[in-house]
Automatic annotation (TrEMBL):
Localization per record: Secreted
Alphabetical list of Pfam families matching this protein: C1q
Lineage per the UniProt record: Eukaryota, Metazoa, Chordata, Craniata, Vertebrata
Chief location category: secreted
Keyword Signal: yes
Keywords: Secreted, Signal
Species assigned in the record: Esox lucius (Northern pike)
The keyword Transport is assigned to this record: no
Signal peptide: 1-24
Gene3D superfamilies cross-referenced by the UniProt entry: 2.60.120.40
Protein name: C1q domain-containing protein
SMART domains assigned to the protein according to its UniProt record, in alphabetical order: C1Q
GO cellular component, one term: extracellular region
């Protein structure tokens, strides 16, 4: 509406100037000249108001754009807050740690085939993802995990100790000690890996190898969820 108002004022101003010029050339009537002068002033004022209105509308448009941008940012922030709430307040808790023997001492192995080690003495098992009856950790939460295991041999000549951390039957990392002329060797290894639901992680004693443990608990298997994915 302001543009129409401005346009009308411009037309009036143009008409006024035209008539004023005609009057100046052909008519010296003072009253008519005064009347035309007032009309010109009014037209100029209307032009000025129209321009101001135009500027205000432009500013309003910019403010509207800014408001829409802020609304978009707010919606993005709200989504991020909801995601953070989900990741923190609702974070699943998965952690376990176990060692090989509940009591006594002696060798485990050798076996004719690669065999999952059953860590019987459980220190912790939040989430119950680790099964001490099988030695297998089965993921019930999709995410990034940390696993670590340790191993010991005890003055054995061959067969000696080869132990692998295994995921779904695939060897990931290992500890190896096949030199029998030294004694009481320990070793450890660890991984950080992503797991899908149902993925199985366990420590496997390789065929024709053995490990030793007693109530000092040298052989351990531990793991925990770092974050969900
Ligand atoms: Ca050795």
């Amino acid at each position: 509406m302001h543009f129409r108002m401005k346009d009308m004022a411009v037309l009036m101003l143009a008409l006024c100037c035209c008539l004023s010029g005609t009057q100046a050339q052909g008519n010296n009537d003072n009253q008519k000249t005064c009347c035309l002068s007032d009309t010109c002033s009014l037209a100029k004022e209307l032009v000025s108001i129209g321009e101001k209105l135009g500027t205000m509308v432009e500013k309003q448009g910019t403010m509207g754009d800014n408001l829409r941008l802020m609304e978009t940012r707010l919606q993005t922030s709200e989504k991020e807050v909801e995601e953070l709430k989900r990741l923190t307040a609702g974070q699943p808790k998965v952690a376990f740690s176990a060692t090989l023997r509940e009591s006594g001492s002696g060798d485990t192995g050798p076996f004719k085939t690669p065999t999952p080690l059953q860590y019987k003495k459980v220190f912790s098992n939040t989430g119950n993802s680790y099964n001490p009856a099988t030695g297998v950790f089965a993921a019930t939460v999709k995410g990034m995990y940390y696993f670590r295991f340790t191993m010991m041999n005890n003055l054995n000549s061959t067969p000696n100790s080869v132990v692998c951390l295994t995921k779904n039957g695939q060897r990931l990392v290992s500890v190896w000690d096949t030199a029998g002329n030294d004694s009481h060797d320990s070793g450890s290894n660890a991984v950080v890996i992503p797991l899908e639901l149902g993925d199985q992680v366990y420590v496997e004693l390789q065929a024709n190898r053995l490990i030793f443990d007693d109530t000092m608990f040298y052989n351990t298997f531990s793991g925990f969820l770092l974050f969900t994915m």
